[in-house]
Amino acid sequence: MSERIEQRAPGSEGEEDQIVPSPSPVPEPPERKARSSRRGESVFRFLASGSGVLVVAAVALIGLFLLIQAVPSLMANNANFFTSPEFSTGDENNLSFGIRDLFLVTVFSSVFALVLAMPVALGVALFLTNYAPRQLSRPFAYVVDLLAAVPSIIYGLWGILVLAPAIEPIARWLNTDLGWIFLFRTGNLPVLSGTIFTGGVVLAVMILPIITAVSREVFAQTPRFQIEAAKALGATRWEVIRMATLPYGRSGYIAGSMLGLGRALGETIAVLIVIRASTSPMTFSLFDGGYTFASLIASAASEFSQPLPTGAYISAGLVLFVLTFVVNALARVIAGGKVNG
Amino acid sequence: MTTATGTDLDRPASEPPTRQIALGRRIKDHVATVLVSLAFLIAVVPLVWVLVTVIARGLPAILSADWWGYSLSGVLPEEYEGGVYHAIYGTLIQAFIATVIAVPVGILAAIYLVEYGRGPLARAVSFMVDILAGVPSIVAALFVFAAFISILGAPQSAFMVSLALVLLMLPVVIRNTEEMLRLVPDRLRESAYALGIPKWKTILRIVLPTALSGTVTGVMLAIARIMGETAPVLVLVGYARAINYDPFEGNMASLPLLMYSELSNPEAAGQYRIWGAALTLIIIIMIFQVGASLISRFSAIPK
């Protein structure tokens, strides 16, 4: 690197006054090279800030365009948008759609996935940072990251064709022996596979690598002196985790879980394939079927032709966008700068 | 310390005054070790399970002679004929167009964040990158549908898919590039300034090349991530059983879309093609993943 700088130095176009990165209003010698490089500087600066602004604009435009497309349909809606469980857009002149069940199924499946994934992710992150031998820690972390590389459609196929039959006995046991808990009541499906329960397990697998990656990163930043202080007091390995790693990394772990929740809320194709549709409303059981926001939109995607019915789905998309926006913003606030990405 | 709770480094140099750690604490420590190791095993199970399933069920398809060189044009649902090269083409071209758009914008935005960004705008950009990273793919697809197809009247095409993929790819590229740019030692920048090289040339000729390998790694990981996206192709392009080379017009297959449409095929050949396409997709993604890690291994930033 330094050789290249030396070679460039003698004939380089920069003049003395360009040493300061942001030139102060010192009078410039009227030299062409300096002027052209100053123009280069401002063009480049403009391009870079423009790209930054583009990102902000993209998020704003997503919200704006979804809103523009959703409003006419919301005006034409005959049902209460927030409390109606039905979503019928077949008759363009009599739209009646509400997001109650979409919201419930989305939240039930995502929160269930979170409940399953959070303890495992915590364990994996601690294993990778505090237990795994140093040489194996990176390959092990890579293996967990590979979980995130598998496309969601493959998780969906595996979930319904392989996993669902395998965990059906567990579902049956929960339903028979713990059916008095409302979560494990028989739901609105005649079968026990392809339910929110199945979907939640698949989602848990899918969000595990995100939670793990964020937590691992934060746990690894635990100040060395805190760990050493704990050890000096004679702490066991678990006590070091309790006294140093967990207090330091808690916010990162929660932020990672929020990111995982955001991913689960918006997961589309795996949920569409795994969770069966149901004709009757949600009964607050994990053995219900139905659509999430994302899976409903995807299921209707081939019929997006008439503006008003399409707008109904776009309004569902808008709610999903707001939901994930809030969850991700919260994650960022909680992380408080410890997590980047 | 007779219990095997630590490595050599953890062991005190002289014998501790009390030789035994209290039983309760030892039990807790062991239970924690077991649980934590168990958690890792639990995490590995689904990965192995998924991969074994896909390989076992997909292998017959991808080993057939026609798989890599033919499309499904004219193949009946129940026939074990044809291949998926039309879908492979679709997956690659859609990812390629998205990359061509997302990489320059993403790298420039990262440069803005690291080299120029100060004040409220930079904070807003950084915040929005995080938000964009969390935008579900179906929402990105709906946005492209609302803005370009509904309002501007563009037809459904592979290019629309690429536009949605750009939104999904941007945050990954920006965050990775940003991280790499921050790793470039400041003394490199300062040396360049000392030699009178203007800031923008320093960035283009010195900072970026130094961070190049990490940036390329990030881009390849981003590509690997978007190639498996199914929601955008469901919303934004129709499925075609034959090859279509034109990304700006007409229906085009891609591996996820082919898998999804074969799901409604009740014949056994449908399953055969689904798992074959799944394995093909995983192989392509793995090529990018492994490529990314090779690049990052062989060219790290000098400290």
TrEMBL record, chain A:
<dbReference type="InterPro" id="IPR011864">
    <property type="entry name" value="Phosphate_PstC"/>
</dbReference>
<keyword id="KW-1133">Transmembrane helix</keyword>
<keyword id="KW-0813">Transport</keyword>
<keyword id="KW-1003">Cell membrane</keyword>
<feature type="transmembrane region" description="Helical">
    <location>
        <begin position="312"/>
        <end position="335"/>
    </location>
</feature>
<feature type="transmembrane region" description="Helical">
    <location>
        <begin position="140"/>
        <end position="167"/>
    </location>
</feature>
<keyword id="KW-0592">Phosphate transport</keyword>
<dbReference type="InterPro" id="IPR035906">
    <property type="entry name" value="MetI-like_sf"/>
</dbReference>
<dbReference type="Pfam" id="PF00528">
    <property type="entry name" value="BPD_transp_1"/>
</dbReference>
<feature type="transmembrane region" description="Helical">
    <location>
        <begin position="187"/>
        <end position="214"/>
    </location>
</feature>
<keyword id="KW-0472">Membrane</keyword>
<comment type="similarity">
    <text>Belongs to the binding-protein-dependent transport system permease family. CysTW subfamily.</text>
</comment>
<feature type="transmembrane region" description="Helical">
    <location>
        <begin position="43"/>
        <end position="68"/>
    </location>
</feature>
<protein>
    <recommendedName>
        <fullName>Phosphate transport system permease protein</fullName>
    </recommendedName>
</protein>
<feature type="transmembrane region" description="Helical">
    <location>
        <begin position="102"/>
        <end position="128"/>
    </location>
</feature>
<dbReference type="InterPro" id="IPR000515">
    <property type="entry name" value="MetI-like"/>
</dbReference>
<dbReference type="InterPro" id="IPR051124">
    <property type="entry name" value="Phosphate_Transport_Permease"/>
</dbReference>
<feature type="transmembrane region" description="Helical">
    <location>
        <begin position="252"/>
        <end position="275"/>
    </location>
</feature>
<comment type="function">
    <text>Part of the binding-protein-dependent transport system for phosphate; probably responsible for the translocation of the substrate across the membrane.</text>
</comment>
<feature type="domain" description="ABC transmembrane type-1">
    <location>
        <begin position="103"/>
        <end position="331"/>
    </location>
</feature>
<keyword id="KW-0812">Transmembrane</keyword>
<feature type="region of interest" description="Disordered">
    <location>
        <begin position="1"/>
        <end position="36"/>
    </location>
</feature>
TrEMBL record, chain B:
<keyword id="KW-0592">Phosphate transport</keyword>
<keyword id="KW-1133">Transmembrane helix</keyword>
<dbReference type="InterPro" id="IPR051408">
    <property type="entry name" value="Phosphate_transprt_permease"/>
</dbReference>
<feature type="transmembrane region" description="Helical">
    <location>
        <begin position="206"/>
        <end position="227"/>
    </location>
</feature>
<comment type="similarity">
    <text>Belongs to the binding-protein-dependent transport system permease family. CysTW subfamily.</text>
</comment>
<keyword id="KW-0472">Membrane</keyword>
<dbReference type="Pfam" id="PF00528">
    <property type="entry name" value="BPD_transp_1"/>
</dbReference>
<keyword id="KW-1003">Cell membrane</keyword>
<dbReference type="InterPro" id="IPR000515">
    <property type="entry name" value="MetI-like"/>
</dbReference>
<keyword id="KW-0813">Transport</keyword>
<feature type="transmembrane region" description="Helical">
    <location>
        <begin position="31"/>
        <end position="56"/>
    </location>
</feature>
<keyword id="KW-0812">Transmembrane</keyword>
<feature type="transmembrane region" description="Helical">
    <location>
        <begin position="87"/>
        <end position="113"/>
    </location>
</feature>
<feature type="domain" description="ABC transmembrane type-1">
    <location>
        <begin position="88"/>
        <end position="296"/>
    </location>
</feature>
<dbReference type="InterPro" id="IPR035906">
    <property type="entry name" value="MetI-like_sf"/>
</dbReference>
<comment type="function">
    <text>Part of the binding-protein-dependent transport system for phosphate; probably responsible for the translocation of the substrate across the membrane.</text>
</comment>
<feature type="transmembrane region" description="Helical">
    <location>
        <begin position="274"/>
        <end position="295"/>
    </location>
</feature>
<dbReference type="InterPro" id="IPR005672">
    <property type="entry name" value="Phosphate_PstA"/>
</dbReference>
<feature type="transmembrane region" description="Helical">
    <location>
        <begin position="125"/>
        <end position="151"/>
    </location>
</feature>
<feature type="transmembrane region" description="Helical">
    <location>
        <begin position="157"/>
        <end position="174"/>
    </location>
</feature>
<protein>
    <recommendedName>
        <fullName>Phosphate transport system permease protein PstA</fullName>
    </recommendedName>
</protein>
